[in-house]
Amino acid sequence: MKYRNVIYTLTGLALGAAVTGCEGEKDLIIIEGNLPIKTSTLYMVGDATPNGWSIDAPTQLEATEDDPLVFVWEGSLNAGEMKLCLAPGSWDAAFIRPVNNGEEIGKADIVNATFQMHAGDPDEKWRVSEAGVYHLTFNLRDWTMSSSYLRGQDAPVIEPILAEALYIVGDATPAAWNIDAPVALDKKSDYIYEWEGALTAGDFKACTASGSWDVAFVRPLTDGCIIGKNGVESADFMYCAAPDYKWHVADAGIYHLTFDLEHYTIEAVFKEDIVNEKNPIETPTLYMIGDATPGGWSMDDATAFTVSPDNRYIFSWEGELVEGNMKACLEPDGTFSCPFLRPASAGCEISSRGVASSDFVYTTSPDDQWKVTEAGRYSITFDLENWTISVKSLSENPGGDTPGDDEKAPLETETLYMIGDATPGGWSMDNLTALTPDASNPYVFTWEGNLNTGEMKACLQPDGTFSCPFLHPLSAGCVIDANGVASPEFVYDKDSSDPKWKITRAGRYRITFNLKKWTIEAECLD
Fold it and tell me: How far is Cα 397 from Cα 390, in angstroms, rounded to an integer?
């Protein structure tokens, strides 16, 4: 919030009241201007800064010796956005911001430009237009900032990365954008990691730990660095939190990737095209086994599915699962050497939100399994023709999250908005894209217009702080393209993993949300 003259005004009024009965009474004096911002620390955050949007580890400025309320910083800024805060850890705090959103920091010097400070919306940020080395000064005494462009960005410092593991994550990988279960590479030596497998057309980056986006990632030096049949466009990479550059796989196929964490290089060797061998799986029976299932790991007590009377490839089961692992087989052979239905990547989660990825494989190895993270009652369906699994929670409010479909009450609202870099208004809470309610059905909201490639989510009524609940897909990176939306179901919560829909093809779309059925439809109109 902005510090105003409240204290001075109240103090002046009190003094005025105290001297009304005294001789020589003076006129009340009100001091204009902002109070100095008293703090011993100052940080900047944003994709223009070295640590990106990590509010838990923002980039710290230094107080000067001459004036502890004047802070300076010198270093490399990326092209992107930034704002400042007095302490790490909270997006709800007041931030130091430009007077107007998008005020430019670039090669032209800025001298004593006024800034403001407040929490919430509008979320004004500076825009760094030119990557380079800058000297920044923020004077918290008179609420001004100065900027000097010193030179182009320095070459990244290459210090060998000592890590216990390396993962790849992105819609090009089998794990998609699931940071909790990214694809692990094989460690060949202290600094060499290798992986061979199928990459689809899309993007990816690499990290040394799972579970958090607020860490440094292994990234290409330029965004969209191409990986294709001719290998990788540029072998060099960097290790940083921002900018959020990613490799782009242009040709789907089987690749052999090698990361050298000592010399900061990547090698990508195209091995062969992906052969689609997913013919319908013919079987009269299907079973699941694992410590998450009622029969545990006993082949004799494997849990049987029921085949649909209308479609011999659809098998369903409904019942209680506990936390643990599971996989499925056509006919238990008692030796565990038979092929199993498995997730496309190890540890694919099943929870009250559904299944993290709908694809499965049918193979004897590796021994990948689904991981049930929340005990409860579930409905599981395998489609052996299309090689997909769908999961619905039937428990009432499991884990305090979204109840199962049969228990979901309609979402009551008069408004619905979309937000994201795929939408016309981008990530601005002040420029949300409104959907229109159906005149005959108050639960159906529709929008028609152009979407960019990028991400999006939706909210009923924005609160300006991004802390309100959002409509999310069941799993991160749920694709919207010319074929529609990959999965029609959504959830409504404050999920910290913040899954979003991913638009992979720009174009004109009709988006329809049904808040009674908890579904989304996407129709490409081009």
Answer: 19
pLDDT in tens, 76-120: 998 889 999 999 989 989 999 999 999 999 999 999 999 999 998
Do residues 413 and 520 both lie within one domain?
Answer: yes
CA atoms of 223 and 243, how far apart (whole Å): 9
Which residue segment(s) compose the domain that 85 sits in? 43-151
Q: What is the mean pLDDT of the chain?
A: 86
Q: Determine the Cα–Cα distance for residues 43 and 97; give it in Å rounded to an integer.
A: 12
Q: State the virtual CA torsion across 338, 289, 334, 340 in degrees, nearest 10.
A: 0
- CATH no. for residue 315? 2.60.40.3620
| Residue 400 DSSP code | G
Note whether residue 259 is domain-resident. yes
Please check whether residue 331 lies inside any domain of the structure: yes
Residue among 23, 96, 34, 84 nearest 55 (CA) = 84
CA distance 153 to 457: 34
Same structural domain for residues 386 and 468? no
CA distance 487 to 358: 9
Q: What is the DSSP letter of 431?
A: S
For residue range 363-419, list pLDDT tens digits in order.
876 778 999 988 899 999 999 998 999 999 887 644 444 444 445 788 888 899 999
Share of the chain above pLDDT 90, in %: 53
C-alpha–C-alpha distance, residues 334 and 300, integer Å: 7
Tell me: do 97 and 197 sit in the same domain: no
Helix (H, G, I), strand (E, B) or coil at 62: strand
Residues in the chain, total: 526
For residue 158, pLDDT over 60 is answered with yes
Cα→Cα distances 41→88, 200, 241, Å? 10, 45, 21
Residue 457 has pLDDT above 60, yes or no: yes
pLDDT of residue 43 exceeding 80:
yes
Classify residue 295: in a domain, yes or no. yes
Same-domain status, 298 and 253: no
Residues 125 and 49 in one domain: yes
Residue 315 and residue 347 in one domain: yes
Number of C-beta neighbours around residue 134 at 10 A = 22
- The answer to whether position 179 is within a domain reads yes
Q: Which of 177, 270, 156 is nearest to 219 (CA)?
A: 156
Contact status, residue 359 vs residue 386, Cβ threshold 8 Å: no
- Neighbouring CB atoms inside 10 A of 100's CB total 10
Task: Among 245, 272, 299, identify where a domain stops.
Answer: 272
506 shares its domain with 432: yes
Phi and psi torsions of 6, nearest 5°: -60, -45
Q: Report how many domains make up the chain.
A: 4
What is the helix, strand, coil percentage profile of the chain, to 5?
A: 5, 40, 55
Tell whether 313 and 390 lie within a shared domain.
Answer: yes
Under a CB-based contact definition with an 8 Å cutoff, are residues 346 and 363 in contact?
no
Strands 225-228 and 247-249: parallel
Radius of gyration of the chain (CA): 28
